[in-house]
Write a structure and sequence with these properties.
The complex is a heterotrimer of chains A (about 300), B (about 475) and C (about 250).
Chain A (H helix, E strand, L loop, with lengths): L1 E6 L2 H6 L1 H13 L2 E4 L9 H5 L3 H15 L13 E4 L2 H21 L4 H17 E3 H8 L34 E6 L2 H5 L5 H9 L2 E5 L12 H5 L1 H20 L5 E3 L2 H13 L6 E3 H9 L5 H9 L9
Parallel strand pairs in A: 1-2, 1-3, 3-4, 5-6, 5-7, 7-8
Helix pairs in contact in A: 2-13, 4-5, 4-6, 5-6, 7-9, 11-12
Chain B lengths: L11 H9 L2 H24 L2 H17 L2 H14 L3 E5 L2 H14 L4 E4 L3 H5 L2 H7 L3 E4 L2 H9 L15 H15 L9 H18 L2 E4 L3 E3 L4 E6 L3 H7 L3 E7 L3 E2 L2 H7 L2 H6 L7 E5 L13 E7 L22 H5 L1 H6 L10 H12 L6 H5 L6 H5 L6 H14 L5 H14 L2 H14 L4 E2 L2 E2 L7 H6 L10 H8 L1 H4 L2
Parallel strand pairs in B: 1-10, 2-3, 2-4, 4-7, 5-8, 7-10
Antiparallel strand pairs in B: 5-6, 6-9, 11-12
Helix pairs in contact in B: 3-12, 9-10, 16-19
Chain C lengths: L2 H4 L15 H20 L3 E4 L4 H17 L8 E4 L3 H4 L3 H8 L2 E4 L3 H8 L21 H9 L3 E4 L3 E3 L4 E5 L14 E6 L4 E2 L2 H15 L5 E5 L4 E5 L2 E4 L6 E6 L3
The chains are: A alpha/beta (about 300), B alpha/beta (about 475), C alpha/beta (about 250).
């Protein structure tokens, strides 16, 4: 069994815990022993983007502490991978946090040695962090001949997983729209992973026209500039409307912020369209339940664990 | 010394409102930015040499910026050796004074200008017109916005927010005012022919030509102009006096450096391998020449640039004004260039405007005119780290207390509570209770304070009945003991 | 009118290259072909001439007709041409007189200096015997240039990759013939074509090393003038020449 720690992110924790539940189940099916360090709260990106670096650093330090191996842990073991349920948060940890923690320590009057230690601790966490779809993509082993068979390896099960052919119960793969957030696209460079993961899940992922254009979430930008943010959402929703006309059944993203932006704007306009976190989509596919009806139900559900075992 | 920029005109809320309420402008901007972005991609994909040159050009630019003062001295010596005049201008008033002085000495009444962002920065036209000179912008896009009395809407294509019907209306008005024939219809050749006729008359009657400059080569004291229309050549060849107003950041050490830089503005700006007219000017006309200006003046503009040397922002001076960042910026595509209230709009404007004109002049630009999508960082041929600068300026605004106290308090409390697990749990529980007053039909339609910005234009799901932390504690923690 | 549609492809091949220079010649041909393709891609007109001086002269007339009048008879045409030693063997004055067109020579050498000084010194119409000596002041030159249909120049070098010709401003090679007339025609020798812009700048560096100075102005011209300022729509012939042509050949 492989150990991994889960970083659900504050938005998933508070607004859509079922994405976290889905992620746990997806990982456990693939042979992962999932740990959830309870001390985690937020990566601090919101505050960081708004220029509140002191507050962001405080949250960052807490995150570093929460995921550091405890003193009781075996020193010879490699610290486990940290799987993050947001490309944006993963990017914050990997790209900004080491600098931020070092700078903030110096600003608070700590010695350069202390500041450097914070940098190293943040770097250690950054090295372990991987966004969920990237992790799933890396686990993939080539499917042997014959669709829907599971390729066993000594380690974690392949994400080719339990019978993806006909995951939706029909002969033609379901079309889903896939949206990759800006930080995942440009800072993590992970545009292929979500698409590969969704294909292996037995669906046909379709990127929207103008895929690389920001949806307008932007963290503090979305709060400070509601009109411009909404106009950007509308542009993205127009692309989605085109895709809907082409038969996509839902929108999937690895970033909850983008989903809430687009879903929230659509809802304000009196429209609705199912939107799933990538973890939820893979979980449904695992259980052969990636059908329009189940997608709809999952998207609407307010429960943390809609299919409690 | 900090620089000085013209005032923004209207307030940010007003500029933003006007922009969002102008569908014709927004459609025009969306179309032109997309077209230019696609052209840039196409030329880099089909012209293999371009990328290697670009990489070397980045190094050359950084190298020059590390030696600006020495290079400016060398440039000055060489221009003066050719019989040109060089003057350093700290700010707008210095430039105005110098130009008017030359104009007075040479009996100048009519001025033609080719496109120069630096002269917009210092509102030179206004200074000259106030002193009674007739000033004509000759770049087609600048001519259009001069007739419209507007500011440029894009660094490279200043009238890209206008439809052809709007351009025709402007030309009709001008034709009536000058008692000449108006354009026949609004097809591009007819509109262009009108501008060509009108502006030719201005070129031939002008006493002084004012240009900007794309680069300055210290090695030989050479001014480099990169244009497409021919007005740059006319402005710097026909009138008897030529004044070039150029930012000190444009200095390049050698012709070897220039060789890699020369094609970059065209490649990233318009997707051309080289602009139609690339002109190297070294001093005034030489003895025996029958054309070219008799006098050449180079005004080296500081206006806040020098202060940036040696700081974390120095790479902003490597900007070649190609507009590539504008063309990919989702905020720019949504609101257009005039909403920024500065001749420098888009991502570069968000950083350059406060750096040159002071953060107080335009605090809303770094704070609000950017969604931090990083598209500009990908697009910039000079590899300027615009997102990093925007983040730094936001931090500075916070440190200087330039935000509403309620926002400041919100962030401070947020940070304090969320930096420890108990605080995080506590705010979650409070928020779940407090949200009830805002939940309608199972969704959040309102919110207090800062978060109310969200619900102004979007709904949100309510906070979940049970957070993931709580679910884990209930369903998992007893099993795994964590 | 687009150049590619208006002008013919290669002319008559009259010579076989000698064995030793075969590779060189085909490399040269490839560069010229690339230059022509780039130039035409920018809405420029191009003619490759292999027949030598006479052919070049005939092509100049044809090019003038096409660029000034879309192929019409061009009963009247005012041509402002450099009259450097390089162009002497073409006898432009004679050629233009044959067509009944008006020839305005760009003054050369010492006489140019006199004209520049505004004296009544005559500006020579080139060193061709029998040519008329006409007085031109500077102001008159500008007016004539602005009212010319065609400007004829040679060039310093040309760039294949970008479709560019380089023009140096000197007393005998003024700026105006490539700027003010409605059309501009440049005569290019195949040996002048280099592959890249940096290659051309190296030639400029050699010039600077020889002369001690760059010219007062160097213009790199890539096709006719253009703008996309109105709705992003391409407009050709904005302020500079509406049509820009090149004839590549030996004379």
């Amino acid at each position: 069994m492989v150990r991994a720690q889960l970083f659900v992110t504050c938005m998933v924790d508070l607004f859509r815990p079922r994405a976290g539940v889905a992620a746990v189940q997806v990982l456990e099916r693939r042979g992962v022993e999932v740990e959830f360090p309870g001390g985690q709260s937020c990566c601090g990106q919101f505050a960081y983007n708004a220029g509140h670096h002191r507050e962001a650093a405080a949250m960052g330090r807490q995150l570093v502490r929460a995921f550091e191996p405890s003193d009781a842990a075996s020193p010879s073991a490699d610290p486990p991978t940290v799987i993050a349920l947001s490309g944006s948060c993963a990017a914050m940890i990997k790209h900004e946090m080491p600098d931020l923690l070092e700078r903030d320590a110096l600003q608070r009057g700590r010695t350069p040695a202390t500041a450097a230690r914070w940098r190293r601790r943040a770097e250690a966490l950054a090295d372990r962090v991987v966004e969920l779809s990237e992790w799933l993509d890396r686990q993939a082993v080539p499917e042997p001949e014959g669709v829907g068979t599971r390729a066993e390896s000594g380690g974690p099960a392949s994400s080719g997983g339990p019978g993806y052919a006909g995951a939706s119960g029909s002969s033609t793969p379901l079309k889903v729209a896939s949206h990759t957030g800006c930080h995942m696209r440009r800072l993590l460079g992970a545009t292929e992973a979500p698409l590969s993961v969704l294909r292996r899940a037995g669906v046909e992922p379709v990127e929207l026209d103008d895929a690389e254009q920001c949806c307008g979430f932007g963290g503090s930008f979305g709060l400070l500039e509601p009109d411009i943010s909404a106009a950007m959402a509308d542009a993205k929703l127009a692309n989605l409307a085109t895709a809907r006309g082409d038969g996509v059944t839902c929108l999937v993203s690895a970033d909850l912020g983008c989903l809430m932006q687009l879903g929230g704007r659509l809802d304000r306009q009196g429209d609705a369209f199912p939107m799933l976190h990538l973890a939820e989509a893979v979980d449904l596919a695992d259980r052969h339940r990636l059908t329009p009806a189940d997608i709809e139900r999952t998207a609407r559900s307010q429960e943390a664990d809609p299919d409690a075992r | 010394m900090p620089g000085e920029l013209p005032p923004a005109g209207a307030t940010w809320p007003e500029r933003r409102r006007r922009a969002l309420a102008d569908p014709a402008m927004r459609a025009a901007v969306a179309k032109s930015t997309r077209s230019l972005a696609v052209k840039k991609e196409a030329v880099f994909a089909t012209y293999p040499a371009a990328e290697a040159m670009r990489k070397r050009a980045v190094i050359a630019r950084r190298g020059s910026l590390a030696r600006v003062d020495a290079l400016l001295d060398e440039l000055t010596r060489r221009v003066e050796a050719r019989g040109g005049h060089v003057v350093r201008a700290a700010g707008p008033a210095d430039v105005g004074r110098y130009v008017l002085d030359v104009a007075r000495r040479r009996g100048v009444q009519r001025v033609v200008k080719s496109k120069s962002m630096a002269t917009e920065e210092i509102a030179l036209n206004e200074q000259l017109e106030n002193a009674g000179l007739h000033v004509r912008e000759t770049d087609l896009g600048e001519y259009i916005i001069q007739l419209a009395g507007e500011r440029p809407a894009h660094i490279l294509v200043p009238a890209s927010h206008k439809t052809r019907q709007q351009v025709r209306a402007l030309f009709d008005e001008e034709a009536a005012a000058c008692a000449v024939d108006p354009p026949v219809g609004d097809a591009t050749p007819e509109l262009t022919a009108f501008a060509r006729r009108q502006l030719r008359a201005d070129f031939l009657a002008a006493d002084m030509g004012i240009s900007g400059g794309n680069f300055l080569v210290a090695e030989t004291g050479t001014l480099v102009l990169i244009t497409n229309e021919g007005n740059g050549r006319m402005t710097t060849s026909l009138p008897r006096v030529h004044i070039a107003v150029v930012g000190i950041d444009k200095i390049v050490a050698t012709w070897a450096d220039l060789a890699d830089l020369l094609q970059q503005p065209a490649l990233s700006g318009t997707g051309q391998r080289l602009s139609t007219y690339t002109t190297f000017i070294t001093g005034p006309r030489r003895e025996g020449e029958l054309d070219g200006p008799e006098e050449f003046h180079l005004v080296l503009l500081d206006n806040g640039r020098h202060e940036l040397l040696g700081t974390e922002f120095v790479d902003i001076l490597a900007c070649i004004r190609c507009g590539a960042c504008l063309n990919v910026c989702p905020v720019f595509r949504t609101i257009g260039g005039q909403a920024y209230g500065s001749m420098y709009s888009g991502p570069i404007g968000v950083v350059l405007t406060p750096l040159l004109g002071g953060l107080e002049r335009a605090p809303e630009l770094p704070k609000s005119a950017c969604a931090l999508c990083y598209a500009c960082a990908d697009a910039c041929p000079m590899e300027i780290d615009l997102p990093r600068h925007i983040l730094a300026l936001r931090r500075t605004e916070v440190e200087r207390g330039m935000e509403p106290w309620s926002d400041r308090l919100t962030f401070e409390l947020w940070g304090r509570f969320w930096a420890n697990p108990a605080g995080f749990r506590f705010t979650g529980r409070i928020a779940r209770l407090g949200q009830r007053v805002y939940v309608r039909d199972g969704r959040l339609k309102g919110a207090p304070g800062l978060v109310g910005g969200w619900t102004a234009t979007r709904n949100a799901p309510p906070l979940a009945r049970e957070s993931f932390h709580e679910w884990w504690a209930r369903r998992r923690a007893p099993r795994t003991g964590s | 009118m687009v150049g590619a549609a208006a002008c013919p492809e290669d002319r008559v091949v009259t010579r076989k290259p000698s064995a030793g220079s075969l590779a060189e010649a085909s490399g040269r041909d490839a560069l010229v072909a690339e230059f022509v393709e780039s130039w035409r891609g920018l809405e420029g007109d191009a003619w490759i001439v292999r027949g030598g001086r006479d052919e070049v002269r005939r092509t100049i007339v044809e090019a003038a007709r096409i660029m000034v009048e879309d192929g019409g008879p061009a009963t009247s045409c005012r041509v402002l041409a450099w009259s450097t030693a390089d162009l002497a063997s073409l006898d432009l004055p004679g050629l233009l007189a044959q067509q009944g067109w008006e020839h305005v020579p760009w003054p050369t050498g010492a006489r140019a200096g006199e004209a520049a000084a505004g004296t009544n010194g005559a500006a020579a119409a080139g060193d061709v015997p029998g040519a008329e000596e006409v007085t031109r002041t500077q102001a008159e030159l500008v007016t004539l240039a602005a009212a010319s249909d065609l400007g004829i120049t040679t060039c310093a070098w040309a760039v294949a990759e970008t479709g560019t010709i380089a023009l140096y401003a000197t007393p005998a090679t003024g700026r105006l013939p490539s700027l003010l007339p409605t059309a501009h025609l440049a005569l290019v020798r195949p040996s002048q074509v280099v592959r890249t812009v940096p290659d051309g700048l190296r030639l400029l560096a050699e010039y600077m090393a020889r002369e001690g100075d760059p010219p007062s102005a160097v213009n790199l011209v890539s096709g006719p003038s253009r703008s996309a300022d109105i709705e992003g729509d391409l407009a050709v012939g904005v302020h500079g020449p509406r049509r820009a042509g090149v004839i590549i050949g030996e004379w």
